[in-house]
Design a protein that fits this description.
Restrct_endonuc-II-like, tRNA_endonuc-like_dom_sf, nucleic acid binding
Length: 131
């Protein structure tokens, strides 16, 4: 896969698709994607065991996947999961819960996706309950 020719938006969309596949493989069902309102955007809305998960996905291109040897070589996508962003996701999640008349539990999660430049391979790190 030639990811170097993709725009930032296309890289983000690819990361969200990879995150959805990861979530499905781990027992989640995907309810919605890319829901935008005045309060913000919800990247992925997933459900597992009667809990809604509002998953904020952050994707970055990397030369290598992070590990003990190269932890500082590439940008860390978790840096974009700052408090203000998480609060926007939570506010938008509250709107979604009210609109859909969801009566169960819900939470805000993070999902970090690294795409390796040379071959387009991905690594995913799921961060449950980041609020």
């Amino acid at each position: 896969m030639d990811i170097l020719s993709k725009t930032t938006k296309e890289i983000g969309n690819l990361g969200e698709s990879i995150a959805c596949e990861y979530l499905k493989r781990h027992g989640f069902s995907i309810r919605d994607r890319n829901i935008a309102r005045k309060t913000g955007e919800l990247d992925v809305i997933a459900e597992k065991e009667d809990t809604l998960h509002f998953v904020e996905v952050k994707t970055v291109l990397a030369d290598e996947f992070p590990n003990e040897k190269n932890t500082n070589d590439d940008y860390d996508p978790s840096l974009n999961l700052h408090e203000a962003k998480i609060q926007k996701v939570a506010m938008t999640g509250e709107w979604y819960v009210l609109e859909k008349r969801w009566e169960g539990e819900w939470q805000v999660d993070g999902c970090l996706v690294w795409l390796r430049r040379r071959d387009g391979m991905a690594r995913v790190s799921y961060l449950p309950q980041i609020v």
